[in-house]
Amino acid sequence: MALLTPPVGPRDHALGAADAPVTLVEYGDFECPFCGRAYPELKRVLRRLKGKIRFVFRHFPLSAEHPHARHAAEVAEAAAAQGKFWEMHDLLYQRQAALADEDLVRYARELGLDAERVRRELLAHVHAARVREDVVSGVASGVTGTPRFFINGRRHEEPGDAKTLAAALRRAL
Known about the structure:
By secondary structure, this protein is an alpha+beta fold. The chain is built from seven helices and five strands. Strand 2, helix 1 (33-48) and strand 3 form a beta-alpha-beta unit.
């Protein structure tokens, strides 16, 4: 069974308490249709198990299939630099059909971010190394596609639908 490499740490984007009994890590791609379909189901599962789960998101843009995925990941990191990673994460999945650079900058403006700073950072690929670090960790963890979930550091081998994922999380509890 594949293990999460490296383990969750302070550099990760996490929702929930660090001492939660279960940590769920997702390697995701903002342009991936499977990730897009999993997003609302995952939100539902996390709401149901609130307080018991720490959720961590790591980038794994599949750029060959999804031409906007890498820039979407970079813009999420640009939002993180301004304190709004999760707001941008949610917006990117909610508006998955519109991820061109001008859309990404517009989303930054909608979230009250310094949109010109985001535009400059996107053009200069300021956050590309951070995204690459997630991809490298995904490859080291055996990730080949998205979404890929890990529960308490072990790869979740079953389907990622809400019912199956919720059952696996309850078992882990």
